[in-house]
Amino acid sequence: MDYRLLGRTGIEVSPFALGTDNFLDPTPADESARILRTAMDAGINLLDTGDVYADGAGEKIIGKTLKESGRRHRMLIATKVDHGKRRPGFTLDDPAYVGPNEHGHTRLNIIRACEDSLKRLQTDYIDLYQIHRPSPHIPWDEQLFALDTLVRQGKVRYIGTSTHPAWAVMHSIMVSELKGYARIVCEQPPYNLLDRRIENELLPMCRKHGLGVITWAPMGMGVLAGRYTDETHLPDDSRAVLRGGFYADRITRRGIETGIEFAKIARRVGLSAAQLAVVWVKEQPDITAPLIGPKTMDQLAEFLPAMETGLDDETRAACDALVPPGSVVANFHNTAPWMKQVVM
């Protein structure tokens, strides 16, 4: 397997990273553990989670599985500190965890959230700690000072961002350079054939300043895998139905039409639509690794052979003809208020 450098860190990561948003929500604990162990056996060495995934239980199953396997040192754990305000009933460990300062990207909460994640993950350090969505009302100086403290304490090795605009990441780099703080090493945006807008500014900025790019939603929430055929009749077990809201808003007529044509391209090259979707992201310039987020062992088994599959020029051109570079047919930045919204 050809491992890839994570930005300018010198760290080598597998061409696919394991996304764990489905762990315990809805994937059961035993199958979540099997998925993680099988991914490690296949050579995947980077896993991504977050403190709000399954209300913190996602981190717990990861910590338990890695401890039992004895392979913590072989895996790079990336987790996140969420920006969202805790609402009543939204709890990580304590039902009373809803105070006004028990959320967000303040120094107070970043350090507290990191300590909590370390306990759930049963580890002494986090390899990559990421700011989950921007907090524009909190200065970068505040956020980076906290992250730098964690790095100096040895609790965090590297820091990153998730779903930030190019200008915000650039701002953080400037503050780090001016203050001597730890520097962000990667950004984690949404990216798939349905939403290519990061190609316009974010990817060129990351290339210029040596940042890695780990992307989420490579299959367009299943649209590119043929999960949906009609935006008005959605599968009962789909995220669009189970979680609704912004998940459902990502299912558009133009996206579904694109997915149908995309499946035809996949059949011509002898791949499943899901495999081609993740290969397409993996083979795009400036991408370090897409996150694959299997819900089942069968889905993981379908992804794994694609880790060493390339993308020929003819197939690349056919995909570009469906959705031209830099354009969009389904909005996967709909949780990012800084991104200009478009009519689908």
Walk me through what this model shows:
α3 packs parallel to α4. About 2% of the residues have low confidence. It contains twelve helices and ten strands. Helix content is 37%, strand content 13%. The protein has a single domain, classed as TIM Barrel, CATH 3.20.20. It has 344 residues and is of the alpha/beta class. The protein has an eight-stranded parallel β-barrel, surrounded by five helices. Strands 1-2 form a two-stranded antiparallel sheet.
Helix-strand layout with pairing:
Blueprint: E1 4-5, E2 12-13, E3 17-19, H1 29-41, E4 46-48, H2 57-69, E5 76-82, H3 107-121, E6 126-132, H4 140-152, E7 156-162, H5 166-179, E8 184-188, H6 202-209, E9 212-215, H7 239-242, H8 246-249, H9 253-268, H10 273-282, E10 289-292, H11 297-303, H12 313-322
Parallel strand pairs: 3-4, 3-10, 4-5, 5-6, 6-7, 7-8, 8-9, 9-10
Antiparallel strand pairs: 1-2
